[in-house]
Amino acid sequence: MAFDQVLHQKAFINGASVDSSDGAQFAVINPATGETITQISDCTARDAEKAIASAKAALKPWAAKTAKERCEIMRRWFDIVIEHEQELAELLSTEQGKPLAEALGEIRYGAAYIEWFAEEARRTYGDLIPSAKGDARILVMKQPVGVVAAITPWNFPNAMIARKAAPALAAGCPIVIKPAEDTPLSALALAQMAKLAGVPEGVINIVTTSKAQEVGQVLTTHQDVAKVSFTGSTEVGRIIMRNGAETIKKLSLELGGNAPFIVFDDADLDRAVDGALMSKYRNSGQTCVCANRIYVQAGIYDAFVEKFSAKAAELKVGGAFESDVALGPLINTEAVAKVEELVADAIEKGASATIGGSKSDKGDLFYNPTILRDVSRNARVLREEIFGPVAPVIKFKDEADAITLANDSEFGLAGYFFSKDLGRVWRVAEALECGIVGVNEGVTSAVEAPFGGVKQSGLGREGSHYGLDDYLELKYVLMGGLAE
Known about the structure:
InterPro entries: Ald_DH/histidinol_DH, Ald_DH_C, Ald_DH_CS_CYS, Ald_DH_CS_GLU, Ald_DH_N, Aldehyde_DH_dom, Aldehyde_DH_Superfamily, Succ_semiAld_DH. This is Succinate-semialdehyde dehydrogenase/glutarate-semialdehyde dehydrogenase. By secondary structure, the protein is of the alpha/beta class. It is built from 13 helices and 22 strands. Strand 12 (about 260-265), helix 9 and strand 13 (about 290-295) form a beta-alpha-beta unit. Helix 9 (about 270-280) packs across helix 10 (about 300-310).
């Protein structure tokens, strides 16, 4: 495999590849085959402290660089990533399991964040505010928040690193990253490429570990960490909020989702089916913005289920490097067990599977694309994040019913709906309690747009020009005595 060129087995601290302080290693497993890809450094709390110290030492020199200098370094980083996109995609597919074409799309998506924030580095504008005093001026300047700690998930091991590291570096902040235990290799490859681009020692640090709680405790409580950025479950997000409270850390939390997907009877049915396919089955349903609850108006319910089932049945399950594969494996045995539990509960409560409903014969971690119809409104599959290729389809009566059902969740990350009625588009877009809304579209992610949720789906936004603000502090400066 070409990914051998970008495969690294050691943690990355202060610009160097290092073993863990106790010499321990852990295995990175290919979820499609169960084979060990490699053994890598299994860092400890002590290693996390070293990484934070390295980032702290790098803070002032990195922040002192001009925005143009940071921009040029980050632009070189982008160029190197694109130059090696094929090797990075193969590495990502091998450690995470997603089809190669989808992995290549993630590499380009992640690189786009590096490019975007390289450009945004030069647009960290402040303000001049009119003062009530004639001999005074009010300035508002923006400065880097400080050392950032990032804890990233396994489902997008390249893009989630880039989406956090790029704005941090653009703002002038060094960063310490703890990638997911299941998928640490993409993070190490990105860090090494950043080094080639000229990112100075200590500005990017990667702490690989199987000791998530031990290392995470250091990253989220250490007094020298000013900000924590986390993507993962709401349960862990609550722990991070508690940990950061003692030192009043700035937080960006992109947490759980339970996205509603609404199809009104005036929708373009074929477009809605295609949107549901893209939203639900991308990354084998392992995304926080997946269509988790599909609500279809009663008059078109049967037609939608029939078309949706026919198209989903065509999706090929298999290994990342097989041709025309649409769905790879789930990440681990726990993920498969959770999907099986949710499907069993729904069927016990009256649902039936139009397709799928069982594991694939491709391997232990492969699950067939599944559509459940006539799902009870009290089924667990509507309350819990599925994170698998299972689409529950529920019938609703009218617009008010759809909005009530969609908002009946503690989560508020993404939501989707399909309608041709312009008045309804405005009403429903405003009524949905979520941070991201797709109207007649099943995939909404874009570097130019703010990504994040409301309610218990988190705090802050990533991407877009708003995404830089979470890595900056505002400083008010009053300049007096200016009269002659």
